[in-house]
Amino acid sequence: MANDGVSRRDFLRTAAVAAGATGAAGAAGALGSGPTEAQAAPATTMPRRTFGKSGIKVPILALGGIFDTPNNQLVLRQALRLGVTYWDTAERYGWGRSELGIGMYLAKNPTARKDIFLVSKGRSRDPKELTKALDQSLKRLKTSYVDLYFVHAVDEISELGPGLKAWGEQKKKEGKIKLLGFSSHQNMAACLAAAPKLGWVDGIMFTYNYRVMNTPQMRRAVEACHRAGIGLTAMKTQGGRSYSTDSAAEAKLVDRFTKRGFTPQQAHLKAVWEDNRIASICSAMYNLTVLASNVAAALDRTKLSAIDHELLRRVAAAGGYCAGCGSICQTLVSGGAPVADVMRCLMYARQYGDRDLARETYAEIPTAVRVRLAGLDYGPAEKACPQGVPIGRLMREAVRELA
Ligand code: SF4
Asked: Are residues 184 and 255 in the same domain?
């Protein structure tokens, strides 16, 4: 087996280290008698990369905070112990409960704060409203600063007005943020391509996976940000759906990866990590099993082979994945419709299995828009969709499932 420098046995040992670390401390933590994070020795040496021109070294795996953090304090503790010290949250995750859970953890473990690269996000594009949102986030997080603050879910670069530059400078002076940037789930390539021109963007978190990373536009956009010293964090790296055993091609791919010693999900992470311009992958790790699996992939040095990449390219070429290019389809629906947002809600429900998050995100679409969604004609949008997404059927299913 050609494993480019590390044997499968090494990889399995790596997985065992991660799983053992989560398992042993997990049992103790569940009983409430485990060591505090200050007492616990780090279980792994997580690889780190420099986050843009900030010079800050961040772990290549980041803990996405879209889960019930108040009731899963053990995941936070074990993430820290496994070197996953980049924590991502947002004011809106769980209607603030994600931040509250991290705040609970920091209140009990105040010495941990200095080890964590803490990120939060605010929805507003208005500096005054962002100030309120940031202050509320800091209160929930029980900290005086975040390392990076994102303007959340930017679809078009024009949403980012000129006032944000001065706002960021002021908040840095006040010591409330160290870096400022934005996150993007839609039209990512266009947003990234335009970001260097703004002159204030320190970092971007954006949808980036084996399905979207190889388009010429995305390649150029990532390179432009990298050259400008903008730190890049990838999200949605699993590419939206599970593999089907009904498909011979997909079954073959699963079988190949399994023989190579990793899962398709770990292969998806590796595909992104092999792009060194990406500082970190932010992954929602709801439980210790997913945490252990992702940490094992981060520690493993096995590179994907040319055949592995080709197989992933074939899955990507088969389409059916909503790539967030809303500017293509949304203007073709009479009166407009937030197609990409609704597809993201469906992904939260069906691929992440997180119906609460799906419903919360869906509820952010104005009621007047939601009530019209099932009755709109999506035919022209379907014809234009480069991924061949059955938009009409999925929009109607979303209305039924998420209302
Ligand atoms: S439905 Fe198609 S065109 Fe619309 S955002 Fe998704 S991939 Fe792009």
From this structure: yes
Give how many domains the chain has, as a whole number.
2
Q: How many angstroms does the Cα of residue 155 sit away from the middle of ligand 1?
A: 13
Distances (CA, A) of 94 to 86, 98, 313: 19, 6, 34
Give the residue whose CA is nearest to atom 7 of ligand 1.
322
Buried b (16+ CB within 10 A) or exposed e, 212-250: bbeeeebeebbebbbebbbbbbbbbbbbbeebeeeeeeb
pLDDT tens sequence across 286-329:
899 999 999 999 999 999 999 999 989 988 888 889 999 999 99
Would residue 388 count as lying in a domain? Answer: yes
Looking at the structure, do residues 211 and 332 belong to the same domain, yes or no?
no
Q: Is 224 inside a domain boundary?
A: yes
Together in a domain, 307 and 348:
no
Predicted structure pTM score: 0.88
**pLDDT tens digits, residue range 159-171?**
999 999 999 999 9
- What is the extent of the structural domain holding 217? 8-315
Give ligand 1 pocket residues (Cβ under 6 A): 322-326, 328-329, 339-340, 343, 385, 387, 389, 391
How many whole angstroms from 376 Cα to the centroid of ligand 1?
16
